Amino acid sequence: MQKDGRMQQQYHNTFSIDNVILGFDSGELKVLLIERAEETFIGQMALPGNLVREDENLDSGAARILFELTGLEESHLEQLYTFGDVNRHPLGRVITVAYYSLIRIQDFNLIPRSSFARKASWVKVSEIPSLAFDHNLIVNKALKRIRGKLRYKPIGFDLLPEKFTLRQLQELYESILQIPIDTRNFRKKIITYDFLVACGEKQQQVSHRAAKLYHFDKKRYQELEQQGFNFDL
Amino acid sequence: MQKDGRMQQQYHNTFSIDNVILGFDSGELKVLLIERAEETFIGQMALPGNLVREDENLDSGAARILFELTGLEESHLEQLYTFGDVNRHPLGRVITVAYYSLIRIQDFNLIPRSSFARKASWVKVSEIPSLAFDHNLIVNKALKRIRGKLRYKPIGFDLLPEKFTLRQLQELYESILQIPIDTRNFRKKIITYDFLVACGEKQQQVSHRAAKLYHFDKKRYQELEQQGFNFDL
DNA sequence: GCAAAAGTGTTAACTTTACACCCATGT
DNA sequence: ACATGGGTGTAAAGTTAACACTTTTGC
Fold first, then answer.
1. Residue A36 scores a pLDDT above 80
2. CB atoms inside a 10 Å sphere around CB B94
């Protein structure tokens, strides 16, 4: 590793935050990637990320990155893991705290709010190219995490529209976990859990029988959880 | 927050590692704490920790802290969470990457290998005092993590001696999870899992019928896991 | 021989799995 | 009227939970 004075000063003991922003669309999980405009790995795809500002908490930094790209606030955002191998950044020691966000991909249009937003795009997780730095590692860690968590926490709802059909929900599980699920058993189970409420509305503009729309009653879920209930798909 | 030039230089963009070292002894989970000899929070109990060296990976740093206190290498060591609130350190911005270690408390004597080791002591997790910095937060996060993980990964074995009785194992689960477990059902389940092997030895020096000793066959477990087996207590 | 913990089986309750047809709607 | 996905029940298999007595050993 080559370190001249400038780099030393610029990069020594530096922290960044990278955010694995995930959405579910057309039956597939997708990750929001940018094309790097800066010098290292220029032109290559990478996770959206930034240095941490001196006056901002880690969570706020991750939320800021999400907001600058998508305009979304108050999304599901969690710390994932911290990557700090000595050689992970070619210009010096940069430790990065990785986060992941689960967002409703339908709820917004990608509107540029920062210089890098022009080059952002959704990439199917099954088709992720070679990324800058150790970002493939980070994405893989995020996928492993959410695949595990999907089974015992109701995080799938953060990826669906507020109102969704039971089939959409089932397809989300089948697609992310890569398993087939029996429709009748799935419906019975999820309905008896008692945290889905029918909106009283139906799908529009489908060329077949319209499905009921449901939404996830988060308050109800939290009540149940406090009473010792464990979500388990 | 007061920052003179020296502090600025010393603490700006600084990262540290703290290690929640856990052991199981006399039927209780314990955490290894030190008494601070340095200026902030002097005399108060804290987690063992250190600044990260420029040439060491995060994992190695955590392993080093463990080694300096206990002489142990190759223990169960995992990254826990990164704490970086702007005000968590009174002298400036210090982001800390927290790890936890699970060790066999019987396997060693606390031998001082570093300046802070003289003051290290095991504290029952039910009796943790007010700690320096945000270290209570960190310990609580570690406890929550291992209580969750204990149910679906075989991490309990890392806290027991290599050879243990089924009752010791049961008591570990009962104590850490704070639940009663039916002895017969527990034994049936864990034996059918087929990764415990009887050593052919028995307890020594007990004033009652001696129990068989078992050990955890890690290779066998990993085989089973690859075949799709899920540990679940 | 008695105190103390080790070790062991059966049944009922519950949960999970497998499986196929009629229904509503748009074209 | 037909194509498309929506919606529903039952029985068998498997899993979990509840429960009490005999065995071994040291003192």
1. yes
2. 20
